[in-house]
What we know:
The protein is of the alpha/beta class. The protein is built from 7 helices and 17 strands. The chain folds into 2 domains: 2-109 and 234-300, FAD/NAD(P)-binding domain (3-Layer(bba) Sandwich), CATH 3.50.50.60; 112-230, FAD/NAD(P)-binding domain, CATH 3.50.50.
Amino acid sequence: xxxxxxxxxxxxxxxxxxxxxxxxxxxxxxxxxxxxxxxxxxxxxxxxxxxxxxxxxxxxxxxxxxxxxxxxxxxxxxxxxxxxxxxxxxxxxxxxxxxxxxxxxxxxxxxxxxxxxxxxxxxxxxxxxxxxxxxxxxxxxxxxxxxxxxxxxxxxxxxxxxxxxxxxxxxxxxxxxxxxxxxxxxxxxxxxxxxxxxxxxxxxxxxxxxxxxxxxxxxxxxxxxxxxxxxxxxxxxxxxxxxxxxxxxxxxxxxxxxxxxxxxxxxxxxxxxxxxxxxxxxxxxxxxxxxxxxxxxxxxx
Length: 301
């Protein structure tokens, strides 16, 4: 049996592992995909403290190396559920694992458009975060896909950097706040295209252009862009744990900055919990908070 099992090997989960290990706890990290989470899609990251510039993969490798050096055990497997009790049983495709406490750091996946070539160009022209990657498109033309608050905020930020911003919305109107819409319509370098969807993504090693089509008459239009920011929502990876952590109406873990849940001994960290800002720095912060809370819980048993 372990002291702490961490579900998820992104920045939140691996930071939690480091803090727990430094508190002399035994730690098992379970990850069904690649370590590092969404950050691995970024070919260049410049907003992580301590790094002038680093690729997402390099940062992920550093996180894994640090956790392993401190004594973490890592198991590549998918988690199906958690059985609650005095001892927590984590049920996976490779068997059951037991721990005194569990930290859920499963993150959230960006919702994709489902267009051919999309996944091939993530990190090479296709992005999900203007705060992270907007500066790379200074004086270039870019597109933002989506019409909700997140998309409008991305477009406003990009309008201060890029030479031209196209906002493509599938509905005939923007669904974001009126104030944000008014700000965008007032920008001379922003073109808002409603009632249209992305039909084709063009580019081999890097994004070159997109083809959009009007839903009303199927008229196509090709737009040359260097970057495309997809902002059509996130999918939190919390479904297997809904019975023990509680979810909000969007599927995020219903927890505040304390990272505790409704179940004693089960904690959450990172993008899987409800929060306003989802960045590497805030994920790492959650990981530290959740780990220390888990250590306090174990010490009190």
